[in-house]
Amino acid sequence: MASAGYMRLNEQIAYLRTHLLPAVFDPTGNYSDQSIFVKALAFRVLAHAEIEEFFEERVTEIAKTAWASWKEKCHVSATAMCLIAFSGREMKLPPDTYSAPGDNQKKIWPSLIDVNHRLNEAVSLFIKQISINNHGIREKNILGMLLPVGIDHKKIDDVFLTEIDDFGQQRGKAAHTSSAKFVQQGIDPKGEYDRLLKIVSLLLPLDEELDIVLKNCTSV
If you write DSSP's letter for every residue of 91-159 in order, what string do you get? Predict the structure, then answer.
């Protein structure tokens, strides 16, 4: 069953289709009204934003749930382990003493002896990365969002990665190129919409995997 986030994504894509793309597509892709091409370009950029938000909201919810489950039940989920494993932080061996040997080390000592501190830091860093530093849905962005919350890399379809990486690349071109150039070259509104439908369709199995991971965050 599709998640609420996935259903909202479909609703937003349908909304953008209604307001930015022709009601009836010309099979030849030729339109006399040049504004249609500009709107098709806007559709690409805004649809990209909707998919990006879908991922960011889903993985942030999972990370927060894993942290809450650990705090409340000491439940060690796969997500909790992956958040630490993919945090990019050095996992040092335990120190030689329980207490900091000097006042200048007291601030960092919890990170050396307290697993709660390490997990909290990993979760905080991940959420910051997602909310502030993530800027796209290229392959590297997708892996950076999914692997740390515990999605098995074997569950990420190669076709999906190829399609969404290409879409992310095309969105980048649209966002950093004058719309006049795209109008001159031509942009097919139907092609833009069909590509989005394919990506959203390929996204459904991954949405289901995210649901499984979220559920496992609270299962004891």
Answer: -PPPPS-SS-SSGGGTTTTHHHH-HHHHHHHHHHHHHHIIIII----SHHHHHHHHGGGT--GGGS-HH
Whole-structure pTM value: 0.90
Is the distance from CB of 77 to CB of 217 less than 8 angstroms?
yes
The closest alpha carbon to 46, from 58, 38, 23, belongs to 38
Phi and psi for 169 in degrees, rounded to 5?
-65, -45
Query: Cα-flanking dihedrals φ and ψ of residue 31, to 5°?
Result: -130, 135
pLDDT tens-place string over residues 58-101: 999 999 999 999 999 999 999 999 999 999 887 778 887 888 88
**Residue, of 111 and 135, whose pLDDT is higher:** 135
Tokens 């992956």 correspond to what residue? 82
